[in-house]
């Protein structure tokens, strides 16, 4: 990763969605609920924020979707991570860890804050 390219490339919603889909297939609203649940309410997304990321992931072949019947009249679109999605998830995790390590180094270096003498 060169320069600031990693800062622009890390997409937290894609990282979170792929992490969730790495466990099982889910539909959009389920993903939104799981994000809120597992972040202990810290991260609250709307479906409108999630779907553009899901569409991007699908356009790149990282996930696929399947319409499933869930009642006599209702169907849901379930998302499934593909092998390339697992590879992309590994890349995103590495970039996330590198970015947060860099931020941690900066915060540690400048932790002293104001001189209170």
Task: Describe the protein's architecture and organization.
This protein is of the alpha+beta class. It contains 5 helices and 3 strands; from the N terminus they run ααβααββα. It has helices at residues 5-9, 12-21, 28-38, 47-59, 83-109, and strands spanning 26-27, 63-69, 75-81. The chain has a 3-stranded antiparallel β-sheet with strand order 1-3-2. Strand 2 (63-69) and strand 3 (75-81) form a beta hairpin. The longest helix has 27 residues, at 83-109.
Instruction: Name the shape in a single word.
Output: elongated
Q: Would you tell me the structural class of the helices and strands?
A: alpha+beta
Span of the ends, CA to CA:
41 Å
Mean pLDDT: 89
Low-confidence stretches are none
Spatial sequence of strands, sheet with the most strands: 1-3-2
Q: What is the succession of H and E elements?
A: HHEHHEEH
Total number of beta strands? 3
Task: Tell me the fraction of residues in β-strands, as a range.
Answer: 5-15%
Radius of gyration: 18 Å
The major sheet is characterized as: 3 strands, antiparallel
């Amino acid at each position: 990763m060169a320069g600031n390219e990693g800062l622009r490339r890390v997409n937290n919603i894609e990282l979170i969605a792929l992490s969730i889909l790495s466990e099982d297939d889910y539909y959009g609203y389920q993903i939104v609920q799981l994000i809120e649940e597992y972040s202990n309410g810290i991260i609250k997304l709307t479906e409108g924020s999630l779907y553009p990321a899901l569409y991007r992931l699908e356009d790149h072949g990282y996930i696929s979707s399947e319409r499933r019947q869930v009642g006599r009249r209702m169907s849901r679109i379930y998302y499934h991570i593909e092998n390339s999605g697992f590879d992309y998830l590994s890349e995103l995790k590495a970039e996330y860890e590198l970015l947060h390590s860099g931020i941690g180094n900066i915060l540690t270096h400048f932790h002293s804050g104001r001189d209170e003498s």
